[in-house]
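Here is a tokenized protein:
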Amino acid sequence: MVMKKALLATLVVSGFMYGSLAYADSHTVAIGYAQSKVQDFKNIRGVNLHYRYEWDSPVSIIGSFTYMKGSENHSGRREFDSGRGAMDAKYYSARGHLDGKYYSLMAGPAYRINDYVSIYGLLGFAHTKIDADIKELLEGEHGPISSRRTSLDKKSTDFAYGAGVEVNPMPNFSVYAGYEGSSAKVVGNKNHGINGFNIGIGYRF
């Protein structure tokens, strides 16, 4: 009788351990909304994709991909002073249209505090692309004198970083919110800071 109970207990414990190992690995796939403010530019908006791999440890791995874009128009007009009396131009005006695109790819560790809450950090690279179409115009008393059109294509690749919190209100459901930061050199050598957030929902399996 004692041997039977011991054997039964061993089988139960073995089955529990096997079940724990068999279901220890889990994957979380999530999608969310991303928004960032680019210095000297308007907000850019897009999507964030989020993948997490967990094993039998409180430490796991997270990967993140973000795509955002935005556009804006600029215009201005001022009096023109060439310093030369022969010029009859009186006004200078300019109009510009800018399109911006941002991509980032990051990865980093996550730490599960308990069954519901995890924190994570990310590090990687961001690629920023700015296309600009600028039209300049010199005007006199009786209308336009000369005009010039310029197109610009600027690209910048820089470090990107992020951090956030992931919550599992249910075992197979996740909600996350995070910060993402980077910078871009798209006008001269000036660094334009990029700071934003992303929020999303995911499925854990």
